[in-house]
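Hey L., structure's done. Input below.
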Amino acid sequence: MTGAGVLLLGEAAICLAARLEASGYRVCLTEADAAAGPGSGVDVVVLAAGEVGRITALRQQLGPVPILLDVIEASLEARVVCLSAGADDFWLSGQGPSDLLMRLRLQLDLQRRAAPAPPLLQLADLSLDPTRRQVKRGPRLVPLTAREYQLLLLLLERSGQVVSRDLIQQRVWNDDRGCSSNVIEVYVRYLRQKLEQAGERRLIHTVRGRGYCLSERLPPPGDGAG
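Output:
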């Protein structure tokens, strides 16, 4: 889960910040950084052994975010204390960062599997499965590049609405000011060609001066549809 946010509390945990960042995690060192909650701020908490007393407050603040507590020895008694204190798992600081990295991957994988699958996005005979990143027009699979997929996803999320070029630039091109309006038009054309390859009717409509609209019918003539 590259980019997952990890809150480190206690010296033994904070000492591993550089290693976690090198492994692709976003590291937070204060509880204020965790205020955004799971998914946007902190996805997992790593506690040093001396921080066990903070588990209750962290649970109230962050809800079901996994909490890993350091245990000095891999004894049955230590594991019982860890789980009884409300932690979800333990890690062994004495074994270096490899044990923590393994347990982080395990907890984040369990978290990902438990999350509800995003719903299928549909309009007419067009469907997009976010879990598989699969697009279909009726029974026909439509292979898309990463950029084409992101553009279609944005249009489907706002189907029936006019999506401005500014929003497309922000969401699909990550606000890259080097992305010209012409580039967006080119990608819309690519997307139309793939979606209409077997003679299917047009679903992506141009609304002149405003942007693009994904809908079953042409926008009203007064909107400058094309």
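The CA atoms of residues 144 and 214 lie 17 Å apart. The two ends are 42 Å apart (CA to CA).

-- N.
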